[in-house]
Write a structure and sequence with these properties.
Helix content is about 25%, strand content about 55%. It has about 150 residues and is of the alpha+beta class. The mean pLDDT is about 90.
Length: about 150
């Protein structure tokens, strides 16, 4: 059950970083091991937009699609994700965005998951730290590219 937490300060606004993470349809353009990303539905629940999305993740012969529920807080301070279907026994990740100055914000990201597929779970546990860092860096690189 890999768990990881990362805090990063970036030279972008909270809104810019929130919008980048919320742009699920474009994940396959920059996120490592994401082969396809697609929003299935979107609705509103109070102060949150609820998105159901499919991500196809994998490498080589290990390719899996999983469905997530993504809660986007309308004040652009938080994004909460949990799996609905796919190769995970469970997956939860949370993003928090805090304004530090006019052109700087802090991103807090945490993830906790376990896979249903034991071989893949063993591989992910072994390489999780590297994979996690590559994923966080991919979002920051994407921000550098589009902002």
């Amino acid at each position: 059950m890999p768990k990881q937490e990362e805090n990063k300060t970036v030279s972008y606004t909270k809104d810019q970083m929130f919008d980048l993470v919320a742009d699920i349809d474009r994940y396959d353009e920059f996120l490592p091991w994401c082969n396809n990303s697609k929003i299935i539905s979107s609705s509103t629940e109070g102060d949150k937009q609820i998105i159901i999305a499919d991500l196809e993740i994998g490498y080589d012969q290990f390719v899996y699609t999983y469905r997530s529920e993504v809660k986007l807080h309308k004040d652009k301070t938080e994004i909460n994700v949990r799996n609905l279907d796919g190769p995970f026994k469970y997956l939860e990740n949370n993003w928090k965005f805090n304004t530090l100055s006019e052109h700087e914000c802090e991103i807090q990201f945490n993830i906790d998951f376990e896979l249903n597929i034991s071989l893949l779970d063993m591989l992910m546990k072994k390489f999780f730290d590297l994979a996690f860092q590559k994923m966080v860096d991919a979002f920051i690189s994407r921000a550098n590219e589009i902002y």
